[in-house]
Amino acid sequence: MLAMDFQALKDSLPPGAMASGTALIYDDEMRSHKLLWDDPVCEIEVPERLSSCYEHLQRYNLIERCVSVPVREGTEDEIMLVHSSDYLEVVKNTEKMNEEELQKTSAEYDSVYFHPTTYRCAKLAVGATLELVDAVMSERTCNGMALVRPPGHHSQRNAANGFCIFNNVAIAAKHAQKKYDLQRILIVDWDVHHGQGIQYIFDEDPSVLYFSWHRFEHQQFWPSLRASDYDAVGQGKGKGFNINVPWNKVGMGNADYVAVFFHVLLPLAFEFDPELVLVSAGYDSGIGDPEGQMCATPECFAHLTHFLMHLAKGKLCMILEGGYHLRSLSESVCMTIKTLLGDPLPHLSGEMAPCLSALESIHNVRAAHKQYWKCLAYESTIPLQDLSTRSYQTGKAESAQTGAQLLTPQEAGKSRNDEVIKTDKFLELHMKKIMSLRPPVRTAVVTTESHTHLLPPSVQSEKKTDAKELNTPISGFDAELVKEENVLKMLTVLEKIIKKEVTNGLAKTSVASLSLAFALKHCCDLKVQKVLCVFVGDMDMKIDSGDGKVLLINISAKQSEQSNTKYNIFFHWKEDDETTTFFLAVAGFILPVAYSYQPDLTIIVVGQNQSLSKNGISLLINLLQGLAQSQVFVLVQDTELNLMQDIIKILTGDFTPFFGSYTPALKENVQMIKELRQQFQQEWKVLQCSAMVSSAER
Ligand code: Q9C
Ligand code: ZN
Asked: How many structural domains compose the chain?
């Protein structure tokens, strides 16, 4: 397989698999829409939201790395894909209005303002969104982001709402259905508000799966709709295609967000198998936002983005919605775009344990959707009735509330300002801490001289065999074995990863288990604190976890006699081409364990008799790149060399994996994942997807 020419491989890929690049759509003109009078509700939706994002993108040198796509106005026909002509007339008429008339028209809607340029900006926001979708659908770029104002997801057929004039994302979905004949579009709304506008538009439409999480607080929080709760699952033919995750407390953070992705969004999205993913990317769900009062840090959005990049062959469009803390918004936008560009992901910070209130919401959504999705078919059905507020408190969530209700307007204003500055300071430090420099070389591979020319040009190949190249002496191992040249080269690559000279690497081995032992020993010598090791295939050696220095997950078709322990998990998986089911195992078990462990390095071994399909291996390696700042070392047994080229392409980042078509989840597999989850959810808390078990044991 190594003998295959890179060009030949390129040519043999299905069309579109090589679509690359990230589109960025932005225009200063969308800053002209602004509030002309006093209105405490609307004053946060300011033009600086856009300029601040753009300045931060410049600061991180991200602009020049994107494909810049010009904006245009959305046409009347495009707007009327979603809105009535009467409503379009209303908006059009605001162009000529004086301030008094503008104010009067604004007052006819909930939380909206109009400006003489609003119509123009709203048309640009629609056009920008459609240009993004066209760039991605025509494969001029792989993915992209549109930075637009005014936002869209609250706006409805006949009404402006919540700062939104035209529903940019809903129009984009209709446009994509029509122009590209798409059968399945996923909309992920991670804005902290419920995009009720999108829900209403697609409520009866099974071809659009709408997911939204939102601050809800038992319907106390705006827009305070009964239809925002978890039991609004869609109507008519659309039943099961609307997913609401209500947040009943503020202070939700990184662990809560990724837990919802692992246990709700990703399994359903994978089963849905979208052809395009649109994200209503609001960043008011991020830390410091005055509206959301949540705690998710900017790098959380990198991880959420990364997960979504593995759907729809990477066709992913981000469209800005809310986000009112300028620094938090801007840093999170930068994180999103860096991830779209394929940069290594920063470590996801914070305690990796979802709070009780989040678990309750997750449980309830899963129960509500049980009858519509195969992957949830074996769930418990009992909805939890506000368990967390009845008998338990989650200190974490409570502490985020400022108690601003008790203050005078002046005091509240000052306290809000203090909060903004506090988050500014926090982010200043935090971003310095988590933004590591991109290593100059992404991937290093151990090869033999004769194969070097077959590697993609970006790959660094390790040919030297000189033991002196190794900077750290190897201790305690059989000197003869260490001298074996492949072991030395392998350790050289590993060392480069640990020293951040490269991001990831690959080596082949004739003795996978033994090589792993060497690698782990070397990690220990180099003071790597936590190594996640996923071994696929039969292991013929016991690995010592060294008190948690190593977490080993062994995926094997053979049954094991060994009993499971916290750091030594045996995962029985039979030969299987049904990637959808394996995806459930990755999203529902392997990733939650891995994210709970928070490793500093990931080693993936593709060993003898490995039981996964090519797709399964791709999926695993792709998603594990979200951990340990994307530092991944892959060891491939020489009997599995047919996988080498694919793995190299995944590591270099120029491969959009195709995970095969959907096949229903098997009961035994779903059951097995459930049992493993139950076995480990006290140790690895991101595994939890219900408040029931954990509360009983508290
Ligand atoms: N008491 C977006 O984030 N708040 N819109 C109204 C009324 C309106 C948010 C509060 C928040 C709208 C796109
Ligand atoms: Zn919002």
From this structure: 2
More confident residue, 33 or 476: 33
Identify which of 45, 111, 321 to mutate to test ligand 1's pocket (most ligand atoms within 8 A of the CB). Answer: 111
Other beta carbons less than 10 A from residue 159's beta carbon: 19
* Ligand 1 atom with minimal separation from the 161 CA: 12
**570 phi and psi angles, rounded to 5 deg:** -100, 130
In-domain check, residue 614: yes
Do 447 and 426 share a structural domain? no
DSSP 345: P
- What is the C-alpha to C-alpha distance for residues 187 and 280, in angstroms, rounded to an integer? 7
560 exposure class (CB count in 10 Å sphere: 0-12, 13-18, 19+): middle
Q: In this model, does residue 388 exceed pLDDT 50? A: no
The answer, yes or no, to whether any atom of ligand 1 lies below 6 A from the CB of 148, is no
Mutation pick for ligand 1 pocket among 49, 164, 169, 289 (CB with most ligand atoms within 8 Å): 164
Q: Position 152: which residue type?
A: G
Please say whether the dihedral angle defined by the alpha carbons of residues 169, 175, 177 and 180, taken in this order, is positive or negative. negative
| Range of lowest pLDDT (54-58, 60-64, 583-587) | 583-587
Structural domain boundaries enclosing 224: 6-343+350-380+389-434
Which residues share a beta bridge with 636?
Answer: 508, 606
Q: Using a 6 Å cutoff on CB, does residue 41 contact ligand 1?
A: yes
- Cβ atoms of 310 and 657 within 8 Å: the answer is yes
Q: What is the CATH number of the domain that holds 561?
A: 3.40.800.20
Q: Based on the domain organization, do 456 and 414 belong to the same domain? A: no
Contact call for residues 47 and 31 (beta carbons, < 8 A): yes
297 and 398 both lie in a single domain: yes
Query: Is 696 inside a domain boundary?
Result: no
Per-residue tokens: 573: 């998986």
Q: Quick one: pLDDT band at residue 179, thresholds 50, 70, 90?
A: very high
> Residue 397 class from Cβ within 10 Å (0-12 exposed, 13-18 middle, 19+ buried)?
buried
d(C-alpha 82, C-alpha 281), whole Å: 20
- Which ligand has the nearest atom to the CA of 214? 2
Angle subtended by helix axes 326-340 and 409-434, to nearest 10: 30
- Find where tokens 């970006």 sit: 458
- Strands 242-247 and 208-215, sheet pairing: parallel
Among left, alpha and beta (phi > 0; psi -120 to 50; other), residue 461 is beta
| In a domain? residue 625 | yes
Length of the chain: 698
Residues 93 and 228 occupy one common structural domain: yes
Number of Cβ within a 10 Å radius of residue 641: 13
Question: Which amino acid type is present at position 446?
Answer: V
Residues 130, 147 share a domain: yes
430 and 447 in a common domain: no
* 3-class DSSP string for 67-117: EECCCCCCCHHHHCCCCCHHHHHHHHHHHHCCHHHHHHHHHCCECCCCCCC
Tokens of 506: 């690959």
Which ligand lies nearest the alpha carbon of 190? 2
- In tens, the pLDDT along 211-252 reads 999 999 999 999 999 999 999 999 999 999 999 999 999 999
Report the distance separating Cα 441 and Cα 109, nearest Å. 53
What are the φ/ψ torsions at residue 649 (nearest 5 degrees)?
-65, -35
Rounded-to-integer distance, Cα 173 and Cα 209, Å: 11
The pTM (predicted TM-score) of the whole model is 0.93
For residue 93, the tally of other CB atoms under 10 A from its CB is 13
Shared domain check, 571 and 425:
no
How far is ligand 1, taken at its centre, from the CA of residue 47, in Å?
16
Cα of 487 to ligand 1 centre, how many Å? 59
> Which amino acid, 233?
V
Same structural domain for residues 559 and 429? Answer: no
Sign of CA dihedral 572, 577, 578, 582: positive
Ligand nearest to the CA of 45: 1
